[in-house]
Amino acid sequence: MRRLIKLAIFITLVMFTAVACSDRDTVKVGIQFTDTILPLAEDNYWIFEDSVFVAGEFDKVETKKMAINGASQVGYEGETIWVYHWTWYDMPEDKAQTRRSLVRNEEQGLAYYGQKMGSSYTELNRRLFIKYPVEPNEEWAYTQGAIVQCLALDNVFDTHIGQFETIEYKMTLGEIVQYLYYVPEVGYVGMVEKENGSITRIRRLKDYHIETEDVALRVGW
């Protein structure tokens, strides 16, 4: 039960309330690619294969997909800004979940602004999620007791489409620890999750698609 509560904190983050936003899901709002930790453009996606462990033993394999499937124009602290919809998909149906995280790349890195559930928004509250550029041992508070730390700038991580030299981050919430692996201008490529020191999930990239200013890059399995 405690694990479910903590995972719910990771997912929900804040209570949902209505705010004034202009929903523009179908509008092309431009591309955030150059010098970013998570390239943001409508139709970008990353597909993963997750190995799930129970009580230290391998249990099953799951396919996960996250994508940028829209954007919204929102008012925040007197300014009007565009935020992108970071959405997880149910697989193999390839069906978008109703909860979408609102994110954008800024000077400090990938910022999280809140969530959208259907037509309702959370109370907008900017938080730094993935700092970039970053130095080893830098640490910052994310939300609801979650602490993120940069562990290394050159960690080699194996995926299903080859090795990547990654920036390794560590996010801690109580007994749950996630080691997150990001590649600038590629994005999220993997994760190792532990609870009380035991591995519960290993996530590895197996396909992705990124829009750049000039061309669409695609690497497949």
SSE map:
Layout: H1 2-12, E1 21-23, E2 45-54, E3 57-76, E4 79-90, E5 95-106, E6 109-117, E7 120-121, E8 127-131, E9 139-141, E10 147-159, E11 162-173, E12 176-183, E13 187-195, E14 198-211, E15 216-219
Walkthrough of the structure:
The structure is a single chain. The chain is mainly beta. The protein has a single domain (2-219), classed as YmcC-like fold. The protein is built from 1 helix and 15 strands. It has a 15-stranded antiparallel sheet that branches. Strand 11 (162-173) and strand 12 (176-183) form a beta hairpin. The chain is globular, with a radius of gyration of 17 Å. The chain starts with a helix and ends with a strand.
Tell me the CATH topology: YmcC-like fold
| Extended strand count | 15
Q: Ends: how far apart?
A: 37 Å
> Quick one: CATH class?
Mainly Beta
Key features of this structure:
mainly beta, 15-stranded antiparallel beta sheet, globular, single chain, 62% strand, 5% helix, 15 strands, 221 residues, YmcC-like fold
Outline of the structure:
This protein has 221 residues and is mainly β. The protein has 1 helix and 15 strands, in the order αβββββββββββββββ.
